[in-house]
UniProtKB/TrEMBL annotation:
Residues modified to N6-(pyridoxal phosphate)lysine: K247
One Pfam match: Aminotran_3
Source organism of this protein record: Microlunatus spumicola
UniProt entry tagged with the keyword Hydrolase: no
Name under which the protein is recorded: Acetylornithine aminotransferase
Cofactor requirement: pyridoxal 5'-phosphate
UniProt keyword list: Amino-acid biosynthesis, Aminotransferase, Arginine biosynthesis, Cytoplasm, Pyridoxal phosphate, Transferase
HAMAP family: ArgD_aminotrans_3
Principal place of residence: cytoplasm
Length: 396
């Protein structure tokens, strides 16, 4: 027992694509996770916007164990009640009851399916945005902006144009009848929780309509209640042709989905795409349980209220290093006046809080949607100490 042996084995046996791990976690319950040395941490990241209901949620456990002991997996040549039930629930969220779903195991794979849908339009050009993150497989990477992620893997699928995020005029300048799709995150999570100006998605919708292009909204990080609504774009009255989901959908169980409405829902047919595990009944029942609990326990409302509480209390600290808090619901970025966010995240971890720094000046907070004000306050009360220490270390 203890973390040292596991960390040692990790170095020898796991491809280290994320850098050296800082903790070994062995147990989770609610908003807390315990490391191999017995220390409890408040999980303010929830696996990056994943564990919406917290860890080891009894309803999800009961649903998953019930399903896996009845029917765990069967080929996608066949249908299961769990899969069609989840498809129906997700279609309901798009506002189009005739929406169709392709199930996957991750957000990346959901975007790969969406990418294929765009090719089936007969056009190839995709408009993406600077700062965009859509995944690391070759297709998802082609629409992901970060040059550091892309460079070693060129040539990537081509005909992708990047425009500044949040700039409707920049979109208007490039969206024409040659464009297959515009792909947008409604809030850029990996880029540091960047919120576009009001009306941005609605304007993108108009431009796509005029050009006959698909509007593809990546709600992998923002969707499934994270921001206080099921989906950010539908909450703004915008309909997407293609919506991709994952992360929070399974509460830690791998569940992803590519939803399509209207013409886009007709473009993938037999032979055009496939997956072994996507949509298996265990994953599907997990997704159903998550939706039911979010509804039953009023977690959209809690996400909104707790998000506002976090903004008020963190901004209320009046700390000179805190510029402001951005985001929506429980997807938040604490924007700092100095590039000390990674150091602050390390100090927070030492003190038993899991957060991360998607940008050098942004701390990301994306806790379970069940989090309470008292739990958030333990972090906010400790934050000035982390900020002061990080600032002193940076100055030294
Ligand atoms: N799209 C967005 C907006 C994301 O934030 C992420 C993950 N950070 C992905 C896609 C990729 O999802 P996954 O890691 O499940 O493949």
């Amino acid at each position: 027992h203890g973390s040292a042996g596991v960390l040692d084995a990790y170095q020898r046996s796991v491809m280290n694509t994320f850098g050296p791990p800082k903790r070994v976690f062995v147990r989770g319950e609610g908003c807390y996770v315990w490391d191999a040395d017995g220390r409890r941490h408040l999980d303010l990241l929830a696996g990056i916007a994943v564990n919406a209901l917290g860890h080891a949620h009894p309803t999800v456990l009961a649903a998953v164990t019930g399903q896996i002991s009845t029917l765990g997996h069967v080929s996608n040549f066949f249908a299961t009640p769990a899969q069609v039930a989840l498809a129906g629930r997700l279609a309901g969220l798009t506002g189009d009851p005739d929406a169709k779903v392709f199930f996957t195991n991750s957000g990346t794979e959901a975007n790969e399916a969406a990418f294929k849908i765009t090719r089936m339009t007969g056009r190839t050009k995709i408009i993406s945005t600077e700062g965009a993150f859509h995944g690391r497989s070759m297709g998802a990477l082609a629409i992901t902006h970060n040059p550091k992620y892309r460079a070693p893997f060129e040539p990537l699928p081509g005909d992708v144009t990047f425009v500044p995020y949040g700039d409707a005029e920049a979109l208007a300048a490039v969206v024409d009848e040659t464009v297959a799709a515009v792909v947008l995150e409604p809030i850029q999570g990996e880029n540091g929780v960047v919120v576009p100006p009001p009306g941005y998605l609605a304007r993108a919708r108009e431009l796509c309509d005029a050009a006959g292009a698909l509007l593809w909204i990546d709600e992998v990080q923002t969707g499934m209640g994270r921001t206080g609504s099921w989906l950010v774009h539908t909450a703004q009255g915008v309909t997407a042709d293609v919506v991709t989901l994952a992360k929070g959908l399974g509460n830690g169980f791998p569940v992803g989905a590519c939803l399509a409405t209207g013409r886009a829902a007709t473009l993938l047919g037999p032979g055009s795409h496939g997956t072994t595990f996507g949509g298996n009944p265990v994953a599907s029942i997990a997704g159903l349980a998550v939706i039911n609990v979010i509804e039953r326990d009023g977690l959209l409302e809690n996400a909104t209220a707790m998000g506002e509480h976090l903004v008020a209390t963190v901004e209320g600290l009046g700390h000179p290093l805190v510029d402001h808090v951005r985001g929506r619901g429980l997807l938040r970025g604490i924007v700092l006046n100095a590039d000390v966010a990674p150091a602050v995240a390390d100090l927070a971890l030492e003190a038993g809080f899991v957060v991360n720094a998607p940008r050098p000046h942004v701390l990301r907070i994306a806790p379970p949607l069940i989090i309470t004000a008292a739990q958030l306050d333990t972090f906010t009360e400790a934050l000035p100490g982390f900020l002061d220490t990080a600032a002193r270390t940076a100055a030294a």
